Amino acid sequence: MNNSEILAQLTDILEQRKGAAPDSSYVASLYDKGLDAILKKVGEEVTETVMAAKDVVNGADKDKLVYEVADLWFHTMVLLADQGLSSDDILNELARRFGVSGHDEKAARK
Amino acid sequence: MNNSEILAQLTDILEQRKGAAPDSSYVASLYDKGLDAILKKVGEEVTETVMAAKDVVNGADKDKLVYEVADLWFHTMVLLADQGLSSDDILNELARRFGVSGHDEKAARK
Amino acid sequence: MNNSEILAQLTDILEQRKGAAPDSSYVASLYDKGLDAILKKVGEEVTETVMAAKDVVNGADKDKLVYEVADLWFHTMVLLADQGLSSDDILNELARRFGVSGHDEKAARK
Amino acid sequence: MNNSEILAQLTDILEQRKGAAPDSSYVASLYDKGLDAILKKVGEEVTETVMAAKDVVNGADKDKLVYEVADLWFHTMVLLADQGLSSDDILNELARRFGVSGHDEKAARK
To answer: Which of B88, C29, C106, D63 is the most exposed place for a label (fewest CB within 10 A)?
Structure first.
């Protein structure tokens, strides 16, 4: 599967919901509640991620961990959108740190 | 910039460091310390993200928030790698939830 | 004011609610939901504490910080009770670390 | 053991260290680093508490959980001291919520 555009599409969705009525979607309701409500969700998802990871090492299915990390990434994307940023800013920062980019991907994989 | 391959490249790097000596890199040292050390870092980065976001609304530069969210995503990727998972699992889960995929990206943007 | 017995009384209350019907009180409902639900609340209260502290340095009233730390301590006490422990275990540990006890309190204050 | 004065004594210790050189004690170094460093420690201790609690239900000794909650309470007390507050403020708030006080302790235990 080609995952390359999923974050870009999700970013589009998050932008589109900025003008929506608070009761029209979960994301619109988070924007309406404001930054503290969004940060509270980010904090919650980390606790859930930590618990899910501890459960995995004790025999639980990995699906729960995937689910919780997806929740965490999703809510950080809502946070970024709320602050006029996006996952592109995060990917650029990661690329900068690790000296990688889309353009030299083949070379890096050698 | 084409960000589409950054997560894939970073995933490659995280896999390559699995066989490395603990003192050869930061990531190798985290693998060696084990799950609790990795989860502790994930928890730390969330607190830093929350503080950076609060600082932004009080006038601080957004760069710090980008930096902290990048740290958070990076350490969740180390967690995923440590557990035999990757960012692909997260992207697939996000795609499943939001009904998007790389293949119908153009349609979704209409 | 004599605060010395408040934690002891709260411990009594938390013990009494162990036998209660889940819908009879907030604490009884937390016991019924189990450890993960209690830990999730502990995690939430920390995020709220961090946000409240950042608000205080930006001019907000300190009452919110007191409220959130009280919430945090309260939910850790529910956690302790759920695991057959109590605030006495925490106070003993703190006394052990800092070389203090109720008995030599006067000496320590010299 | 009489635990009633431990928080009061610890509060005294935290106040005394306010005037100390940053390198004279751990607490003095935290005050010197400032609020964000203190909040980061509070956040860390919560992650450790969550992991320790999950370990207990998987057979680990409860001592680790006691240790981590003590760390969490201790660092919240440093936070309170840094902000001109103390555990008395927290105990008063808890007493207010639960309708208990040192003075009517006997009655409450009937």
So the answer is: C106
